[in-house]
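Lab notebook, page 48
Experiment: co-folding of the full assembly
Goal: obtain a model of how the components sit together before planning crosslinking
Operator: M.T.
Materials (sequences as entered):
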Amino acid sequence: MHPLDKIANQKWFAPASAILLLLGWLWIGMTAALPGATTTGKIPAPQAGFLAPEFSLPASQGGAVSLADFRGHPVIINIWASWCGPCRAEMPALQKIYEQFADQGLVILAVNATAQDTETAALAFARDLGLTFPILLDRDGVVSRLYENRALPSTFFVGADGVITEVIIGGPMAVALLFTRVQSLLERPQ
Amino acid sequence: MFPILQIGSLAIPLPGLILLLGLWVGLEISERGARRINVRPDDLYNLVFTAFLGGIVGGRVAYIVRFAEGFMASPASVFSLNPGLLYPAGGLAVAFFAAFIFTQRKKLSWLTMLDGLAPLFAVFLTALAVANLASGDGFGQASDLPWAMELWGARRHPSQVYEIAAGLIVLAVVWPRVYSFGQPPAGVRFAQAAALAGLSRLILEAFRGDSATLPNGWRIAQIAAWLVLGASLWGWRALQKNGTPVNPGKIEGKRSL
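Observation: model returned without errors.
Model output:
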């Protein structure tokens, strides 16, 4: 018989188990999360539960757009390139969702990874698809670095409080996925 | 963190790959030990496959039922490959139900099958922690300990590394027993693995920085782990004293479904 199997037959097994459970319960109380210990929303980082890192980029329509301008609105940040197949495939879904929810305050910031793309190709693609949300040009790759972008497309769902609720790496995202995520962003308490 | 494996123009999400690898390795080890407890490796493989398939289909159907409006706008999304369109609770319920039906139809003992799956359970726990290390999920609380690691804007407990170590400990207990002929009564081997896993989670959740908590700050995962620990200790003792003995055997069989 394996030594582990002999343990449960010992007289001390039941009292030892009870003591272990009591100690476990005390451990739960002792290690309860202090306020702020697990709420990471104050630190900027490209991860769910953290504050979306701030950026400001030139928009294709002219002028500069800052993420901070949209505090109080749910925001989808989509990092893309015109040569990336999944990025191209999911753009119509993003446009459809934008048309459906823009009047409820949804903001979509399509950050073109211009450092890995050409501005002409990106703008032609946006024009062909009739995209109406802002196309931001990340010419120096600042946002790609800030958001630790390793694959295209990468999508960050940001609540009205500025906290990232979910990160989706890769694509294409389905309309239903975007629909449910936007709904939960809109229902999220500020 | 290393969430993406780039092979040429192909970007593979590494965490998903690690989990699949964990499933495969765990199943291989489980199958090798199955004969020792008189379980056909085919049955073990088919049980996992049925539960996996049930989990995927059930998870998608539950998601469609819960968020029907989103699919009415785009019926094609029903067949989307996005794993984000799975409802975990629904998937888990259907997976268990599918596994239950499978064992009933095949007249298999639940407890013996759980024993057979104990190595898979241990390997998957470890793989989950490795996947979290790759993706940066399951991160630790801020800490100034010398072995703290820089992650998400702060030095943090390497909670994923702690959990890998815990998974390996569970595996170190479970794995050698796969090849042992002196098997305990049915269900004991799984109860032991579950007790160890519950205890490790109870301890290590305290170092996590992403715990879901109750209003008083108690971590929900710790309470769940405490319940698992209690139930598995009770089950271990009860089964060891009164359980059905396992007849060691050697069953030959080819994998098929």
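Interpretation: The first strand of chain A starts at residue 56 and ends at 58.
Next step: discuss with group before ordering constructs.
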